[in-house]
Automatic annotation (TrEMBL), chains A, B:
<keyword id="KW-0805">Transcription regulation</keyword>
<dbReference type="Pfam" id="PF00126">
    <property type="entry name" value="HTH_1"/>
</dbReference>
<feature type="domain" description="HTH lysR-type">
    <location>
        <begin position="1"/>
        <end position="58"/>
    </location>
</feature>
<protein>
    <submittedName>
        <fullName>LysR family transcriptional regulator</fullName>
    </submittedName>
</protein>
<dbReference type="InterPro" id="IPR036390">
    <property type="entry name" value="WH_DNA-bd_sf"/>
</dbReference>
<keyword id="KW-0238">DNA-binding</keyword>
<comment type="similarity">
    <text>Belongs to the LysR transcriptional regulatory family.</text>
</comment>
<dbReference type="InterPro" id="IPR036388">
    <property type="entry name" value="WH-like_DNA-bd_sf"/>
</dbReference>
<dbReference type="Pfam" id="PF03466">
    <property type="entry name" value="LysR_substrate"/>
</dbReference>
<dbReference type="InterPro" id="IPR050950">
    <property type="entry name" value="HTH-type_LysR_regulators"/>
</dbReference>
<dbReference type="InterPro" id="IPR005119">
    <property type="entry name" value="LysR_subst-bd"/>
</dbReference>
<dbReference type="InterPro" id="IPR000847">
    <property type="entry name" value="LysR_HTH_N"/>
</dbReference>
<keyword id="KW-0804">Transcription</keyword>
Length: 293, 293
DNA sequence: AAAAACGATAGTATAATCCTATACATAAGG
DNA sequence: CCTTATGTATAGGATTATACTATCGTTTTT
């Protein structure tokens, strides 16, 4: 029993006329007769009574018609659902991002994306191990720092970020237009702990310049760092663009001269299908940062 | 999209392992890969993510799985329903019979048949034109008098009936064991009108014997004839076996010597499928009359 | 680094589907 | 009653789809 045969069968149920049904189906009449015969052999009973020139459904034919219509409809629904999915009317998307990016930047993008595609479920997970989550298929795409090349991953750099010093407006350096590496030694700093990318990057940058920073306080959360800054504990070094999402008038960002940089990129498994939802999300992400920077 | 492919697909959804699914399906792994590919080409998106050794469903795969399961289930239901039908657990049967037979004999058979196959709908229509009703497919089978051969009809004689005189017990002839054609002339008779088979048969029989009957009263209903007999109006000539279903102790039946006979037969279109319900009904009908006579 | 596991690909054999031509049967018309 | 028209089944052959075996390329495991 095949779908094709059921289509033939259902057409014949409507027409009750082999030649006419075959014509409408675009096949020859003998082919229709044969395929109906195959169906009848399979169910074991005739589906139609061929009485001279009149053709009528048998009981079994009426029963099969009922169920076959439902089955065919189910499969049409499936095709439509999948079409909707690829047409970005539905579907889902899992994204792994750096926690600080999620807290301070991506939310605006998510809101914008949702307005455009309200039926697409987007799940964003903060992660410090984005590449592994992508490799393990725990997420569809990852947005994070440039990692070492991997043949299994497709990587698309989309933004190069500079760093700024974030400090409360009543601090002397808050008035400056730019900060040098030497200036940083004179500021009490609150930073990520060692081992965090956002900390190690700064440490390496300082090391290149024969200096080092002395962190007064360390926390693993960007939000807490900014609260410490706002409390006047000290300054912190964070990506420059974060300030635009930061709703605090008390904190100023001062660009760092010859700043350390980090490259943000989009990663996904190169053997994984990139849904239209994912494609569109990536495109929005790129324009979001381009328009922002 | 074919049922076979959906079966392959659903198995693969369960196993998430091409080789294993192919083994369970009894096909080769390349065949499974190819057929899944065909499905994917048809819906336009991958149904599985082949990620190295791990295989997982895509969104589209999950959607199709849901609908495909329902579709396959519908078709299984259809097969079961048809199987039930042929297994005489359901179905329907339309029978045309002579009115008098229905009134006086077949009801017992119907009760018996229903006990054995309670889910089979049986529709019995009294008819004076059984052959035409069979030819027009208004009924599935007909039970009636032997008609002239027709190449479109399948005919199975199952009973040859003799006739008796039915008369009230207080009539002198009620004591006799047998009645001759001459005796009939001395009895007031109530009969079917001319043109009814049950009347014309008797008239022809009398004509062969150089006599004729004089009907005192004529009605088209066997029931009314018996009521007339019971009222003492006269006797009537009816098939011998009717008495056994006749619940009147006032009426006696006396066999007629060298009786006229009528052949009862089962007719159905030879191009019409004889359902198991019909087959069984026919068999019960035959044993019913054999056991009765 | 070698081996094993897994899926994709290539090439070919088999089977199913489809077509044309024609036969057979029934209903309709002169 | 015979002829014609209509409708379906059958036969034979062409095409397509499906299946297999053998093998390759990757990825994971030992």
């Amino acid at each position: 029993m095949e779908i094709r045969q059921l289509h033939y069968f259902l057409k014949l149920c409507n027409e009750l006329h082999f030649s006419e049904a075959a014509y409408q189906l675009g096949i020859s009449q003998p082919t229709l007769s044969q395929q109906i015969r195959v169906l009848e052999d399979e169910v074991g009973v005739p589906l139609f009574d061929r009485m001279g020139k009149k053709t009528e459904k048998t009981e079994a034919g009426a029963i099969l018609e009922h169920y076959a219509m439902q089955a065919v409809r189910q499969l049409e629904n499936a095709k439509q659902a999948i079409a909707d999915l690829t047409a970005m009317n539905a579907g889902s998307l899992r994204v792994a991002v750096l926690p600080s990016d999620l807290d301070y930047r991506l939310t605006a993008l998510l809101i914008e994306f949702h307005k455009e595609f309200p039926r697409t479920k987007v799940q964003v997970v903060p992660s410090l191990n984005i590449v592994n989550q992508v490799l393990d298929n725990e997420v569809d795409i990852g947005v994070g720092l440039s990692a070492k090349p991997d043949s299994r991953l497709h990587r698309t750099p989309f933004y190069t970020e500079t760093y700024s010093l974030y400090i409360r407006q009543d601090h002397p350096l808050a008035e400056r237009n730019v900060i040098s590496v030497e200036d940083l030694g004179a500021v009490p700093l609150v930073m990520y702990p060692k081992g965090f990318y956002g900390r190690d990057l700064i440490d390496a940058w300082c090391l290149e310049r024969q200096t080092s920073i002395d962190a007064l306080m360390e926390t693993g959360s960007a939000a807490s760092l900014f609260q410490l800054v706002q409390a006047g504990i000290g300054g912190t070094i964070q990506p420059s663009r974060l300030i635009e999402s930061l709703r605090s008038t008390d904190i100023r960002s001062v660009p760092i001269q010859d700043s350390p940089v980090r490259d943000l990129e989009i990663v996904y498994r190169n053997d994984k299908y990139v849904s239209l939802a994912a494609k569109t999300f990536i495109r929005r992400l790129e324009t979001f940062f381009q328009g922002d920077g």
